[in-house]
């Protein structure tokens, strides 16, 4: 688990990111503790995912049907098979749910998947850097402190179930944060000749076995 703590400059809004599970398929858990009461406000985390990691829109749609996760992907069409060096950044707006254990706390999780990277020399892992998410508030029936929050340019409704416009606000002061690192296994470039030779040998052997079986047991008119 990778933990990232961010302390905002205004009223101590705290953001925590945790990467759960192991391997290429993880869960990104985001927890926010606001510095002020946000009763009646929608809370979201805007995250920019680098090309090395992505959210599966089909998996996300299934989770949203069961009311397990609410999020908006930009763009909403993603090439799931593209390697890291052919992919691009992905913007995720993750809607957070109130935490019953804390009146000013919100949390949500979204599944993320690492992409395949180019083989490298002398290392078996590539680093994917996850920056701290931006905390956004949409208060349809409340008022935010002008000293701490300012209108944000986010063309997204207040929830994933709503189509109406919404005015989101973000913190005026950019919080100091540390970057979270995800290490993705990669192949060794010096092994490329061996891998190609073994792949060619295996392909030829399997093709020969299939051809032999077809000649022995096949019926040709």
From TrEMBL:
Q: How does it sit in the membrane?
A: Single-pass membrane protein
- One GO cellular component term noted in the UniProt record for this chain: endoplasmic reticulum membrane
What organism does this protein naturally occur in? Mohoua ochrocephala
Write out the function statement from the record: Stabilizing subunit of the glycosylphosphatidylinositol-mannosyltransferase I complex which catalyzes the transfer of the first mannose, via an alpha-1,4 bond from a dolichol-phosphate-mannose (Dol-P-Man) to the glucosaminyl acyl phosphatidylinositol (GlcN-(acyl)PI) intermediate to generate alpha-D-Man-(1->4)-alpha-D-GlcN-(1->6)-(1-radyl,2-acyl-sn-glycero-3-phospho)-2-acyl-inositol and participates in the sixth step of the glycosylphosphatidylinositol-anchor biosynthesis. Probably acts by stabilizing the mannosyltransferase PIGM.
Instruction: Return the similarity comment.
Output: Belongs to the PIGX family.
Q: Which Pfam families match?
A: PIG-X
Where would you find this protein in the cell?
A: Endoplasmic reticulum membrane
Question: What is the protein name stated in its UniProt record?
Answer: Phosphatidylinositol-glycan biosynthesis class X protein
Q: Which domain of life is it from?
A: Eukaryota
Q: Quote the InterPro entries the UniProt record gives.
A: PIG-X/PBN1, PIGX
UniProt KW keywords: Endoplasmic reticulum, Glycoprotein, GPI-anchor biosynthesis, Membrane, Transmembrane, Transmembrane helix
Its encoding gene is what? Pigx
Please give the biological process terms from Gene Ontology that the record holds. GPI anchor biosynthetic process
Q: What is its main location?
A: endoplasmic reticulum
Point out the coiled-coil segments of this chain. Answer: none
Q: Hey, which pathway is this one from?
A: Glycolipid biosynthesis; glycosylphosphatidylinositol-anchor biosynthesis
